[in-house]
Design brief:
single chain; alpha/beta; elongated; 209 residues; 62% helix; four-stranded parallel β-sheet; 12 helices
Length: 209
């Protein structure tokens, strides 16, 4: 599930100057991670979307099995709403690897698998934070008439919600969904950088040792 193409891309990264390959669920997660990194870290990191939380765990198991051949480190991020299922994800990972190496595998997993901020899906988390704390900045970035219009737009997206918040905002803003999400992640990184500290610190532990 998601191993073949993503694994091949990860292998190709070893032939470049990439030092860390980061596996995430989807494009939304990839943009959030990118937004948390400065230019130096972006140059040294390759972020690969694999499609689902299950595929992230499959990638982790494949990388553990083949770790002796790796020339660069690997990190894995699950969306925040998967945090409550950590034990389940770890159990599945351990079931995919050589049981004689279970103890080593457990530590390897703990060192490399992390979560995006909060216990919510990334889209809902970012929309909620911007609605709660950064309405004027949202208004400014997207050229809206006033803060009231911005707040109503964010409220509407949260009500419609459940993984479709950015779709509804893109409809209301008449902008591509990818552009809306990129700019919202940028606002979060600029205005509330500390909320992304766990992402940076997880990457830094593997990138800088």
């Amino acid at each position: 599930e998601g191993i073949s193409s993503a694994y091949a891309v990860g292998r190709m990264a070893e032939k470049t100057n990439v030092e860390l390959v980061v596996y995430v669920e989807d494009a939304m997660a990839r943009q959030m991670v990118l937004s948390s990194l400065d230019s130096e870290r972006r140059r040294r990191t390759l972020i690969i979307e694999v499609g689902s939380h299950s595929a992230v765990i499959s990638q982790a198991a494949a990388k553990f099995v083949d770790r002796s051949h790796d020339q660069c480190e690997a990190a894995f991020f699950l969306d925040g709403d998967q945090r409550a299922a950590l034990a389940t994800h770890k159990g599945r990972f351990l079931g995919l690897v050589d049981q004689r190496k279970k103890e080593d595998a457990s530590k390897w997993f703990d060192d490399r698998v992390g979560f995006l901020p909060s216990d919510q899906m990334p889209e809902r988390f970012v929309v909620s934070i911007l609605r709660e704390k950064h309405v004027p900045r949202f208004c400014e970035v997207f050229g809206l008439e006033n803060d009231l219009e911005a707040a109503e737009m964010l409220d509407k997206a949260l009500v419609r919600g459940d993984h479709s918040e950015i779709f509804w905002l893109s409809e209301d803003l008449i902008l591509p969904r990818e552009q809306v999400w990129q700019q919202m992640c940028a606002v979060l990184a600029q205005e509330d950088s500390a909320l992304l500290d766990n992402v940076r610190s997880h990457i830094d532990r593997l990138l800088f040792g």
